[in-house]
């Protein structure tokens, strides 16, 4: 069976661009009047202020990369964040970060060849990556504030795919990913709320997303849940034994995967 490093995303590039703006607006709405000293349990050691600063910084940094059309790994991360002196201005600053990103998107052909650390060496990689950085941390903020979080299903499906396609390339900042190998073991992630089925194949030399498998193929271990919950699972915001998920098969394999796939 073929192991794929790249396949088409569920959302189009324009959808990614619009979704970054929408997710940032939801994030801003959540933190606008919140106490930014609030701890963020899903990001241990961080407060809401840290979460907002990180997300806006990522948006501005990726925007610099897009405008520079980088063709090789950047040597530094120097960027003028224009961060307010007072945390009371952080929510508006995050909204402005999305505007900075939108301007970079408008000036960049998404199909432009660029260096990227993941599978897709096109400008669209950075737009898609920015979306899921923003979406995940919006959910982190809402969870910290006790707010109900929802994730649009198409975005969740696309996010699962984006995570699994790019994870094999993440060892330079997530070194434990290098431990994800084995003697031809498979893990299936199955969406229970519509189409969505991902088979990850571990091999002696690594792992990859198998895009040629029939849905009826058996797997050594399977985790099922809504697309939104599977996305939160992959990002470590849910455990595979959470009540909203079902799992079966090789428990040791699942434990090995989740101990080494932190992103």
UniProtKB/TrEMBL annotation:
Mycothiol-dependent maleylpyruvate isomerase metal-binding domain: residues covered: 19-141
TM spans (from-to): none
Keywords assigned: Isomerase
Gene3D superfamilies: dinb family like domain
A cellular-component GO term for this protein: plasma membrane
GO molecular function, one term: metal ion binding
MDMPI C-terminal domain mapped to chain residues: 156-255
Signal peptide coordinates: none
NCBIfam families (UniProt xref): maleylpyruvate isomerase family mycothiol-dependent enzyme (TIGR03083)
Protein name from the UniProt record: Maleylpyruvate isomerase family mycothiol-dependent enzyme
């Amino acid at each position: 069976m073929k192991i794929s490093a790249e396949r088409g995303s569920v959302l189009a590039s324009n959808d990614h661009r619009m979704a970054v703006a929408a997710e940032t607006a939801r994030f801003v709405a959540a933190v606008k009047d919140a106490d930014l000293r609030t701890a963020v349990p899903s990001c241990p050691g961080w407060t809401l202020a840290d979460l907002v600063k990180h997300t806006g910084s990522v948006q501005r940094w990726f925007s610099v990369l897009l405008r520079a059309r980088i063709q090789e790994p950047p040597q530094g991360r120097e960027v003028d964040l224009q961060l307010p002196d007072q945390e009371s201005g952080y929510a508006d600053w995050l909204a402005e970060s999305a505007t900075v990103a939108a301007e970079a998107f408008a000036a960049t052909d998404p199909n432009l060849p660029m260096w990227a650390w993941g599978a897709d060496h096109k400008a669209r990689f950075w737009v898609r990556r920015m979306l899921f950085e923003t979406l995940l941390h919006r959910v982190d903020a809402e969870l910290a504030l006790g707010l109900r979080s929802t994730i649009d299903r198409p975005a969740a499906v696309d996010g699962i795919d984006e995570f699994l396609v790019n994870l094999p390339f993440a060892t330079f900042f997530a070194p434990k990913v290098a431990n994800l190998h084995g003697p031809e073991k498979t893990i299936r992630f199955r969406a229970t709320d519509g189409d969505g089925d991902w088979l990850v194949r571990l091999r002696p030399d690594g792992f990859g997303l198998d895009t040629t498998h029939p849905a009826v193929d058996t797997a050594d271990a399977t985790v099922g849940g809504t697309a939104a919950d599977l996305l939160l699972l992959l990002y470590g915001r849910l455990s595979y034994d959470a009540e909203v998920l079902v799992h079966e098969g090789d428990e040791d394999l699942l434990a090995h995967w989740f101990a080494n796939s932190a992103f």
